[in-house]
Structures are given as C-alpha cells and as structure tokens.
Specification:
Length: about 90
C-alpha cells in the first residue's frame, strides 16, 4: 500500500493507548480534508488532549505517513475523517 506523506506545524498530543504510543494532531480547515473504530480512536485522542494525559507539544513540526483514511458518516468530535499511519516528531519522540 502506498503511503501519503503530509507535513505540518501545529499542536501534537502524544499519549499511551494500549501497547502503543499515539500522536494526534488535527488539520481543521485544511484543503486536504484532514480533520466505529475511527470514532473510538477520535474519542481517545480528544480525551487525551483535554486532560493533558501525556505530552502536549505546541507548534511542533511533524511529518505523517498516512496508511489508511476513514471517512465518517457524520461530524464526530469535530472531525469528518480519521487518517492513521506513522508520525515523526522532532527530538526525543523520533
């Protein structure tokens, strides 16, 4: 499967989820359209951001390698689409 590479600068929340470390960012208003398993992931990411569950990086440069894209049937947690893949962050989170 081909990867889609996205780059951005913004807020990234990093938090533990099961046996993974998850990095979450949102691209609301971006022309590329970034914004039932998908709903669960979005709720966990939103929860981690609200309670500052792990690390909240402000204005960080990131690169995401998107593997899957889930279009939701309605707006959920202020998102229409969930994309998943691998995210590279600077410094200790690489």
């Amino acid at each position: 499967m081909a990867l889609t590479e996205l780059r951005g600068v913004g807020r990234v929340t990093v938090f533990p989820l099961e046996d993974l470390t998850v990095a979450y960012t949102t691209r609301s208003g971006d022309g590329r359209g970034l914004g039932e398993a998908a709903r669960w992931i979005l709720i966990q990411a939103s929860r981690a951001r609200v309670v500052a569950a792990f690390t909240d990086l402000r204005s960080v440069t990131w690169t995401a390698y998107v593997r899957r894209r889930f279009v939701l049937d309605a707006l959920f947690a202020n998102h229409e689409v969930l994309v998943t893949g691998r995210m590279e962050l600077p410094g200790r989170f690489r």
